[in-house]
Amino acid sequence: MSHTRRNFLKFMGLAAAGLCAGSAGSALAAAEAGPVRAADALKAKRWAMVIDTTKVGTKETIDVLAKACHHAHNVPDIPTKQNVKWIWAASYDEAFDQPNDHGNDAMEKREFALLCNHCTHPPCVRVCPTQATFQRPDGIVAMDYHRCIGCRYCMAACPFGARSFNFMEPRLYLDLNNLNKEFPTRMRGVVEKCNFCVDRLAHGKQPACVEASNGALAFGDLSDPNSEVRKLLREHYTIRRKPSLGTEPGVYYII
Amino acid sequence: MKLYNGGKIITGLVIFLGLFLTPLAYNAGKAAYSQPKLKLPVNEKECVESKEYMRKNHMQLLDQWRDWALRDGKRVYVNSKGKEFEISLQKTCMKCHTNKAEFCDKCHNDASVSPYCWDCHIQPEGLKK
Fold first, then answer.
1. Among residues A51, A111, A184, B55, which is most buried (max CB within 10 A)?
2. Quick check: is B85 in a domain?
3. pTM score, two decimals?
4. What's the CA gap between A41 and A35, in Å, rounded?
5. Are B126 and A136 within 8 A, CB to CB?
6. Residue B22 domain-assigned (yes or no)
């Protein structure tokens, strides 16, 4: 073969193409280790909860929900004002900002189950300096306790009092023989709150309070017109807490 | 050439060198450092990745696992062989490594590192007051 410029260029072109194909092939063949979503996880565009206050309207019935929740997430019970709570009972006046002087007595005497509202526009997320609290794409306002520095800006920002600070070591107030070993505890100096049971949704389970409520609480996808929550919202008159603030809570109360 | 205050300087140097070399003298004749004997899982031979990879990179892997599970909501890890594991310290790692004191602490104590995993996560031995 004569050494012509034409042959030289042909050879170089072929060699370059071969190198490209070879490296692309090996990159495709190499198994890439990484994370995927679990197949049985529950998915939604916007998680929401509907609480039927005609069915859970007393302290006793709400305490059942709180017990299930607090056991599932190792929430301590501290007998002072520094208690930690994820879901709790409160009166009508505490819960809603629309008291009339002369309203429906039966309703105003009820107790209401309060928890983090997982707002569409969460003020706590805006103020967190470390992004320890953040909004997931499915609307859940989650906490990353690894990042929380305990500044409590989120507690000041939350208009619903849904957040608790661990003023002391929470393990001192936990029943250490009766812990849920599938979930961590917290440490002193972090803020905590309801997480809409992201840990349970990831395994295809409903939130702990919904499971313990005998159907008085419903949980589902607000963006799906056929979901149970949308059906309940269509059929009943519901209110949300402090709508005038514009945070768009994700927890609805049938009254 | 004359060394001013020679006596004091030489004495000082000897004392300094003596103190400086005490660690060597203290450890002379002792056995060299050996890696601690870990209690490995009985029923499981393979970790999520190879033993060498885990020894070198478990801290980075745990760091990634935390962000994937908590922040990205992806709770299943596909390892380099294509096998799937749930991303969870308490539910996956510690299901096989059933004793923190016999596994984690051995090397961490020797290397004098104290990760704060167990301030919140519950070790398989349980918690005591």
1. A51
2. yes
3. 0.82
4. 14
5. no
6. no
For A47-99, write each residue's pLDDT tens digit: 999 999 999 999 999 999 999 999 999 999 999 999 999 999 999 989 998 76
Q: Name which of A31, A33, A185 is nearest B122 (Cβ-Cβ).
A: A185
- Where in the sequence is the domain holding B95, given as residue range(s)? 51-119
Residue B21 lies in a domain: no
CB contact under 8 A, B69 and A35: yes
Domain ranges of chain A: 47-254
DSSP string for residues in B18-59: HHHTHHHHHHTTSPPP-PPPP---SS----SS-HHHHHHHHH
Q: How many domains does chain B have?
A: 1
Contacts across the A-B interface (CB distance below 8 Å): 79
Distance separating alpha carbons of residues A108 and A95, to the nearest angstrom: 11
Under CATH, which number does the domain A47-254 receive? 3.30.70.20
Whether B96 maps to a domain, the answer reads yes
